[in-house]
Write a structure and sequence with these properties.
Oligomer: single chain
Structural class: mainly alpha
Radius of gyration: 26 Å
Number of helices: 12
GO cellular component, one term: lysosomal membrane
Membrane topology: Multi-pass membrane protein
CATH architecture of the largest domain: Orthogonal Bundle
Largest sheet: 2 strands, antiparallel
Strand order of the largest sheet: 1-2
Subcellular location: Membrane
CATH topology of the largest domain: Clc chloride channel
Keywords: CBS domain, Membrane, Repeat, Transmembrane, Transmembrane helix
Protein name: Chloride channel protein
Order of helices and strands: HEHHHHEHHHHHHH
Low-confidence stretches: 1-5, 10-28
């Protein structure tokens, strides 16, 4: 009897120590400024395809027709992803055009007036005020509402596609903050573009429609898509959304597929290639059609994408010019290396010293 009591007390003390260790681990504080540790809120996703007797029996019970319907629904969801990713791109582009036109129209008025009145410093102050007013909404939304929407969005999407589940990365609120943020940044004259935000936006759209529900829009509950709620299916749709974002940004469906294949996904199959290419094509076509209609030439599919570097009248070059191209490439490489070095140092500085929300703003 005494032996039994001793054993019970031993296991009780052991369990209590384990509980204390778990609590201490959960309450552990990471020192401010630490840059080489993952966040405790990150989780891993389950991409393994479960196979057991119960699953086999369930598949046999549902029959072959169920699998056919499931494949059809996959293609339908990829089509929806392409359409809505393009529509988000259209909304972002039109918003940027309207706000930028208003900004530069007012600046031109001040320049014309100050040219005669000899007060050229005033247009500069107006330009500075316009940029600050444009940037502040996006900054506040990211800092106080959804911090995961900061940056281009490409790194977090690549993390998701490779098995790291970051909280709020594919939430509808993240999409709204991301869209407003990119409009705010571009109109404010910051050195950023639409490719990264479009990739992240496409990923959020894909994650939302593939699950058939949203935590914010609770009325949206499509039970038809409930069969795609596991991590593996959701990952494939997010890969399609990221590719659709690239296609909308550059008007290049093949480029979208190559982005997901080469840079995004570690898990791939041949069937996914065709579905992602389909979503990318739908995205590029929808954006082209909508923007052509907006530019008052509907049916004339001549809108390349959200990013346009203009045209060149003369593409011919002579042999001596190759040396100039080599020098330009070398200078570009050096400037790129300097930019990456500076960006890394600034990022570490921000992580180490700008550790409160108002300082980040």
């Amino acid at each position: 009897m005494e032996n039994h009591n001793n054993n019970n007390s031993f296991y009780r003390e052991r369990n209590q120590s384990l509980v204390v260790e778990v609590i201490e681990f959960k309450d552990e504080k990471i020192p401010i400024g630490t840059t080489d540790v993952l966040k405790q809120s990150y989780e891993s996703q389950n991409f393994d395809e479960c196979e057991n007797d119960l699953l086999v029996d369930e598949a046999q019970r549902k029959g072959y027709q169920y699998e056919i319907r499931k494949k059809i629904y996959r293609w339908v969801i990829f089509c929806i992803i392409g359409v809505f990713t393009a529509l988000v791109g259209v909304a972002i582009d039109i918003s940027i055009q309207k706000l930028s036109d208003f900004k530069y129209t007012k600046l031109k008025e001040y320049l014309d007036w100050c040219w005669d009145e000899d007060c050229m410093y005033q247009p500069y102050l107006v330009w500075l005020a316009f940029n600050l007013i444009a940037v502040i909404p996006g900054t506040l939304l990211v800092a106080y509402i959804e911090p995961v929407a900061a940056g281009s969005g490409i790194p977090v999407v690549k993390c998701y596609l490779n098995g790291i589940k970051i909280p709020h990365i594919v939430r509808f609120r993240t999409l709204v903050v991301k869209a407003i943020g990119v409009v705010s940044s571009v109109v404010g004259g910051l050195a950023c573009g639409k490719e990264g935000p479009m990739i992240h936006s496409g990923a959020v759209i894909a994650a939302g429609f593939s699950q058939g529900k949203s935590q914010i829009m609770r009325f949206l509950n499509l039970k038809t898509f409930s069969k795609f709620t596991d991590d593996r299916e959701k990952r494939d749709f997010v890969a399609g959304g990221a590719a659709a974002g690239v296609a909308a940004a550059f008007g290049a469906p093949v480029g979208g597929v190559l982005f997901s294949l080469e840079e995004g996904c570690s898990y791939w199959n041949q069937g996914l290639t065709w579905r992602i290419f389909f979503a990318s094509t739908i995205s590029a076509f929808t954006l082209n059609a909508c923007m052509s209609w907006y530019e008052n030439h509907p049916g004339n599919m001549s809108y390349d994408g959200l990013l346009n570097f203009g045209g060149f009248d003369n593409l011919n070059y002579e042999l001596p010019e190759l040396l100039i191209f080599v020098v330009m490439g070398a200078i570009g490489g050096l400037l790129g290396a300097f930019f990456n070095f500076t960006n890394h140092k600034l990022t570490v500085f921000r992580m180490r010293y700008l550790n409160t929300t108002w300082l980040k703003v």
